[in-house]
Design a protein that fits this description.
Structural class: mainly beta
Shape: elongated
Distance between the termini: 35 Å
Strand content: 35-45%
Number of helices: 2
Strand order of the largest sheet: 4-3-2-1-5
Order of helices and strands: EEEEEHEEEEEHE
Helix content: under 10%
């Protein structure tokens, strides 16, 4: 198998039927039973490279799987994804601050989607974020 990932790519991984997790792709070894080697960051202890059986790109089609045991499918419910979950800002996107945690509500007005911030630090601020902006600038931290 030819691996489509490059060192440093953001990916989601899992071994079997446990929850998907986000990591940073390190390398691929087709001689291994679990061929995907992925760096799993941990804010407390740094990071460590682990082997994984399943690996998908972390993008606009897969980010909704993080924290779930769901199999990949093209369509998803954005409202269910953000409901009761916390997201940490990982790259600058005004008015959000890197390192701060936010939670959102997903809405649509005349077919135009937007996320409303429900966090105390920007409470009830209507932010027009695309799915890509949410994926690229925030990391799902908990449910």
């Amino acid at each position: 198998m030819v691996c489509k990932f490059k060192k440093g790519d953001r990916v989601i991984v899992r071994l079997g039927h446990e929850k998907w997790r986000v990591g940073i792709f390190d390398h691929y070894d087709d001689k291994q039973n679990m061929p995907f080697f992925v760096d799993m960051p941990n804010g407390q202890t740094g990071s460590k490279v682990y082997q994984w059986f399943k690996c998908l790109p972390y993008d606009e089609n897969t980010w909704q799987l993080v924290g779930t045991i769901d199999n990949y499918k093209a369509a998803f419910n954005r409202g269910e994804y953000v409901f009761s979950k916390f997201f940490k800002c990982i790259s600058p996107l005004p008015p959000f601050k890197v390192g701060e945690t936010y939670w959102f509500d997903y809405s649509s007005n005349n077919g135009k989607p937007f996320y409303t911030v429900l966090s105390d630090n920007l409470k009830n601020t209507k932010i027009e974020l695309t799915d890509e902006q949410l994926v690229n600038n925030f990391f799902l931290t908990s449910e």
